């Protein structure tokens, strides 16, 4: 960004639309035809959708026929979180959902599971799922004759912390060996796609969910990806036979085309994303230099290369966000604001972070538009904000 322009540091909320995605969408919008029609115009639209489906299958290690497009990550997650499922057409029912306590709100809501059938999995001080507790709960459920459903995100949207999903998948297989089905495992990969390798087979999950606008595609498009054709959950949206009868409704052809274009860019530029770790690390050092009391959450565990969750004791997130916005920087908070009242982040609460510190949590997330100049300018304006707000525990590093 040129000096004087706004600094966008909220890529985990949504990443700016890639030029290639915009071009693909505009081109798709000029096409006439419904993808379900058998004439030439319909087949041309269908070809665009299937091209994107193949690109997403490649990006997730799946087969194209196991990719179901949705309206976004939330719909995909709610669809996946179903106690009812079939394997080879035979219906089964999961008895209890085990959901990590740091999941996105749409997963925490439990999807189609009844509230009384949901158990939250504890995490440690870095936000990583307690594997021993997970194992104990799953074993107890299986020994009681139940069928556990486990949902754990690959990368946290607030802190960027990576969960050991492959290890969880392997543990579930080991604990339920000889039972078919022994478990259902779902991974929310919305923040992971394009930022770490995503492989549905290596992770050992039955389903994973993704979203277009986290990788530079348009908003309003996501997908539910299955590991095997035999496994399916009932459609959330019913009606017509679109998406192989797994999700009714005329496909968002332009949005899916944009998603496909973004996936192509992602495949060609994967290494560039990891370069953001250098900018992240530089900015974290700057934040702690500006105020020596700054807390960087989960700094010492594997995280996304683009995410910083931090707080300065004595600073309230809502006030700091407004100050940043007025100074020309867009970032997010780890807190939720409802009716003017700032509440602590459920993610940080689950990590055992104090309420006062949690209510001051801010999130910086970098992306394809972020430059070294952006992070340097943000560090400068943040120093001015800290000096002006004078948090109670403020102390300049030597």
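^ structure tokens above, recovered residues below v
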């Amino acid at each position: 960004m040129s000096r004087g322009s706004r600094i966008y540091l909220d890529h985990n909320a949504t990443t700016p639309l890639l030029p290639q995605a915009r071009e693909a969408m505009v081109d798709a919008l000029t096409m006439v035809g419904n993808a379900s029609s058998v004439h030439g115009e319909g087949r041309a639209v269908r070809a665009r959708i299937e091209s994107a489906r193949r690109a997403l299958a490649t990006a997730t290690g799946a087969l194209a026929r196991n990719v179901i497009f949705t309206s976004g990550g939330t719909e995909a997650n709610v669809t996946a979180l179903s106690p009812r499922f079939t394997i080879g057409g035979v219906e089964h029912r999961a008895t209890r959902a085990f959901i990590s306590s740091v999941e996105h709100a749409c997963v925490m809501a439990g999807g189609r599971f009844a509230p009384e059938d949901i158990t939250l999995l504890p995490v440690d001080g870095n936000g990583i799922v307690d594997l021993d507790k997970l194992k104990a709960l799953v074993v107890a459920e299986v020994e009681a004759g139940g069928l556990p459903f486990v949902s754990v995100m690959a990368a946290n949207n607030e802190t960027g912390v990576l969960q050991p999903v492959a290890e969880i998948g392997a543990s579930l297989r080991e604990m339920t060996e000889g039972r078919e089905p022994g478990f259902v495992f779902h991974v929310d990969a919305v923040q992971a796609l394009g930022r770490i390798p995503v492989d549905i087979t290596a992770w050992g999950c039955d389903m994973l969910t993704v979203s277009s606008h986290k990788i530079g595609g348009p908003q309003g498009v996501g997908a539910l990806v299955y590991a095997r054709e035999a496994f399916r959950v009932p459609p959330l949206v019913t009606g017509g036979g679109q998406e192989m009868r797994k999700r009714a409704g005329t496909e968002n052809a332009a949005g899916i085309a944009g998603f496909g274009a973004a996936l192509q860019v992602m495949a060609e530029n994967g290494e560039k994303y990891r370069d953001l770790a250098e900018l992240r690390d530089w900015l974290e050092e700057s934040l702690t230099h500006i105020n020596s009391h700054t807390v960087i959450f989960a700094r010492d565990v594997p995280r996304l290369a683009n995410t910083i969750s931090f707080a300065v004791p004595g600073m309230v997130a809502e006030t700091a966000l407004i100050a940043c916005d007025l100074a020309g920087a867009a970032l997010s908070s780890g807190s939720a604001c409802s009716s003017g009242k700032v509440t602590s982040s459920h993610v940080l609460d689950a990590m055992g972070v104090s309420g006062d510190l949690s209510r001051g949590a801010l999130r910086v997330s970098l992306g394809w538009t972020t430059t070294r100049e952006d992070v340097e300018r943000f560090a400068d304006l943040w120093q001015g904000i800290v000096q002006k707000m004078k948090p109670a525990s403020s102390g300049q590093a030597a």
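The chain has a mean pLDDT of 93.
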